[in-house]
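Two proteins were folded this term; both appear here.
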Amino acid sequence: MADTITLSAEPRSKTGKGPARQLRREDKIPAVIYGHGRDSEALAVLRADLDKTLVAAGGGTTVIHLKIGGKKVRTLIRELQRHPTGRNVTHVDFLEIHAGEKLTVRIPIHLEGSPFGVRTHGGILDQTLRELEIRVLPKDLPPHVEVDVTELSVGDSIHVRDLVVADVEVLDNPDRTVCTVVPPRVEAEPEVVVEEEEEGAEDAVPELIRKPRAEGDEEGTGPEE
């Protein structure tokens, strides 16, 4: 079951790029909450509080009790927008949820352990699926899926059908590959190119280039130094 975290938010009346930039200068993050038939509502959260929330969530899917004024709402973080270079969070979308309604969400897939084929044969663990789409009640929502890969040899794979996740309906194709151990990459040896010498190259004599002798000059007499 997912952990529960509490985060405070405040309504905001001004929206758009200008007010959003002003909020960020005040160390606040613009946010929005929607879902469950409610109208979208613009919010702001303190950057420090949001950072603590993300650390506590540990990269997993976590139920957040969002305090808006005197009211507490159960939510999930639906989307985080980050600055393309600094990677700081610039906007947050919250999705309101209710206890008796199933959610369709994607949860992270965490690989646990070092595969046998990596340890003994120099293989490489390649993870091709990093999130699993599921339908689940909020009370049964796992923060992530743990997959033990210690027994995988070179050429072995784990598929969606091999995952064990209690109390959820898995929506991804059962045949999708989650991860595989591939053979070590062999670097191609650099090609050595041997240039063949032209015929008669050993007997070649450098060509002497000098001014032509002016008419009247004696042979072998050059310009005065």
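Next, the second protein.
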Amino acid sequence: MALRNESTTDVSTPEVAGRAVVPFRRRTRAGRLVETALDLLVPAEQRTFATRLWDGSVLPSPRGQADWTFVVNTPAIFRQIFLHPDELALGEAFLRGDWDVEGELERVFEVAESVANYRPRPRDLFHLAPLLTLGDKHPDDGHAEEHRADLHDDRAHTMTRDKQAIHYHYDVGNDFYALWLDKEMVYSCAYFATGTEDIDTAQQAKLDHICRKLRLQPGERFLDVGCGWGALVRHAVKHYGVSAVGITLSEEQAKLARERSAAEGLADRCQIELRDYRDLPTSWFDKAASVGMAEHVGTANLATYFGSVFRALRPGGLFLNHAIALRPQVHGRTDSMLGRRNHHSFIDKYVFPDGELQAIHRSLEFAEQAGFEVCDVETLRRHYALTLRQWVRRLEARHAEAVAAADETTYRIWRLYMSGAAHNFQVDRLGLYQSLLSRPETDGGCALPLTRADLYREA
């Protein structure tokens, strides 16, 4: 049932998320109900956003100038929020287009915690009953659920299962990822000196930062566990003179990585293999790195993961483990949409099936139990927030091409996931650490210099 706008004389014409809107003195009936709901969910002093309703009316921000606009395309979304506040269902409602954001999608996560912490009282529901009964439930055409990765059973993190999970996430299509990643297609946290660098510059800096930390030398054998599209192994071969092997479970990634390696004349020194980390050879490599791979291993397999890399290194070898970490609940409530994952979360169903995050102390504990010495740990949390924001802007700028390369639902999955992740890193709910580990010599020797001074010399 559509409710007509009852506005009378115009006042001013403010800008909302970069667009002029027509304000009004008197709210529509729908507007009055929604404003009551918003007052309960988000305190007025925190509402820097305007709200545009399904009937075309707009509720201005109580703070005046609106930073962004919350778009409500069906009143059923309020029934979901107040009566069935399920994170997965709200995410799926975004995929269907029940709600949206004009402006930076990350901004919606700033108020999400206030909404998540709200507990409706009977009198609130009574006053909101006209809103909660408005409109029919959005017809579920099943299109969003077709994108679900329903892999969960008792066989989690077998070799076959891990390959299925990697295929789901990384084989969306090289053309889709190429639209918003840097030119080398590095799908992990970049490294910023000032925060103003473009994504190509920052990703090149990250590749070099890893190589410098490992103190790669000409003639060394270098392993990249979970090599993606091969940017790190190619960088290491071209600029540090190593021979490199990259392993991945993604056929799409391996194909493009091999093509790029051959095109650059590196195929004789840069080998890309479809191989599981549990099948690594013994004592074959001088140095190794794993960038954004450990999140796919699972808690139950961390000992195997670190043990496999330990055995693949010769004594004295170095291993750089670059991984997202789950931060302790020191900043209040944390649920699956805001960082923690479970088999019923949006991120597990639509983004990283079977993904598991560990606190940094747990990862280091497994590394030490495998025999590694922890030599250095660096946090890149703020760098990942900067990286994700650039990815989101680049994806949004090429919306039509992303839909052509994949589809609208895939575009919306990645837009929501990366915007939420940027917020999580910004507020220190997620961490990102590079841990430099050493397989000690039999006499306790270590290949690293006594200080970090060499890392800070001009490249």
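The CA atoms of residues 193 and 419 lie 22 Å apart. The longest strand covers residues 313-326. These notes refer to the second protein only.
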